[in-house]
Amino acid sequence: MAFIAYLERYPTDRLPQSGGLDATVVVTMTLDTLMGGLKAAQLDTGTRISPALARTLACQAGVIPVVLGTRSQVLDLGRRRRFHTKAQRIALAVQHGGCYTEGCERPSAWCEAHHLTPWSQGGDTSVNDGALLCRRHHTLAHHPHYDMTHLPGGKVAFTKRE
């Protein structure tokens, strides 16, 4: 788990290049998988990964999600620039003071930037559409069995789907 966390946080400007391109992982999935379905996604190496991992990678890692329709036509070839900048993370930390989840007291240093409107659904990488979530709550934000609710006053809460 620590190695995966290290890879997810490795600075993108220090990634190796091949033929002038940064190292890139292409994840192919159906729209249903991206929206919370249970069908596996596939890396460009042919390796199959869980839908939850595909959604997490689409949010956190240096991947380009390829979303396919019913006849394998490309519906969306994801954008690459999706990480919040250092300045945006600082602004979110100042605004929110830590995890954006109601009742969570994790400090901002323990949090990850999250798109309130999912990146996979056109969410902007901005302070207005961003929030800091601790690792636990960021995982729940991408978990197919949990809903994230925006509460009055701006915080969010997570509830398990029935």
Describe the structure.
The protein has helices at 2-9, 31-34, 51-60, 86-96, 135-141; strands at residues 17-18, 21-22, 25-30, 41-43, 48-49, 63-68, 74-77, 111-115, 130-134, 146-150, 156-160. Residues 75-80 have low confidence and may be disordered. It is of the alpha+beta class and 162 residues long. The chain is built from 5 helices and 11 strands; from the N terminus they run H-E-E-E-H-E-E-H-E-E-H-E-E-H-E-E. Strands 5-4-3-6-7 form a 5-stranded mixed beta sheet. It has a two-stranded antiparallel sheet with strand order 1-2. A two-stranded antiparallel ribbon has the order 8-9.
Task: Record keyword descriptors for this entry.
162 residues; alpha+beta; five-stranded mixed sheet; two-stranded antiparallel ribbon; 11 strands; 28% strand
Question: Can you count the beta strands?
Answer: 11
Strand order of the largest sheet: 5-4-3-6-7
Measured by DSSP, the beta-strand proportion falls in 25-35%
| Terminal-residue CA separation | 29 Å
Could you say which overall geometry the principal axes of the C-alpha atoms support? globular
What class would the helix/strand composition place it in? alpha+beta
- Please state the CA-atom Rg, rounded to the nearest Å: 16 Å
Put simply, the count of helices is 5
The low-pLDDT segments are 75-80
Order of helices and strands: HEEEHEEHEEHEEHEE
Query: Helical amount among residues, as a percent range?
Result: 10-25%
Mean pLDDT over all positions: 75
Biggest sheet details = 5 strands, mixed
